[in-house]
Predict the 3D structure of the following.
Amino acid sequence: MSGRSISAVMLGMMLSVSGPHTDCQGQGFQKSLTQLTFDPEVDYYPSWSPDGTWIVFSSSRDGGNLWKVSADGGPAVQVTDFSSNHPSWSPDGSLIAFDSDGGSVLQIVSSDGGIPIRIVPETIVMSRGAHPCWSLDGTKVAFSAEGDVWMIDLPTAELTLIFQDDGYYARAFCWSPDGRYITADVGTDVEKSDDDVWLLPLEGGEPVILTQLPGREGNPKYSPDGSMIVYMSHFGEIRSLWMISATGGDPVRITNHEGFNANPRFSPDGTRIAFSSDRGGNPDIWVMELDIEALKKALGIYPDSR
Ligand SMILES: [Ca+2]
Ligand SMILES: [Ca+2]
């Protein structure tokens, strides 16, 4: 693999004080809502382990690095002690991909911590980029660089440009379960004052524009069965989570909190969504259990349609 470098050392595991807190909302499409982290610093960008037992997340604690917490609650455990953001757990559970230094370096690290490995060479300029996501077979990682979307094949280090358009700035988020698309938020300016959810094809053809709404639509992630995509809508001061059928149509709102709700990610079993919310006072990691049947009915997705 070219461009490999070792840039930092993990020093050890640290614990923070926290405990589970469950608040049944009984509203909308939420069956339950659980707060998993309780630190005054900002916790965001959760990603589930493939067995659904852990959630790794970015935190501003200790200068900005990765922590993980049991999906059932408990103390948060520090995973990295160096600049690391936007974690994505590999499908086999052994690795976590992340970016560092303002999205300019893409690395992978053992999910137990340790020494990271840079996987994209410095020849790819990726300021404000990365946001890695794994292919379902774990052999490829898609990432963003300078408004373009790339894919790297890990066994060969071969780089493939997936999306590049001088008129648009794209940020990759998640592979479709059928392997045909990468979700991205795409806007016409780097500040992303009005971006929308696009599906970037991996096998040729034109991108699918899933939302065309005022304000920012971003952070799109597929449900494990591929039928739905959850995303964040940022309009005014409110960031809320919405769900839309992967084939388009009217979205439905799945949060009812008038504050910060962002970075949604489906659990591997497709029943829950981890996200960051400030409803507890400052941004922490929360998990909502969804009424999937009611949600699919509202979105016009029928049980046997996929
Ligand atoms: Ca928009
Ligand atoms: Ca917090």
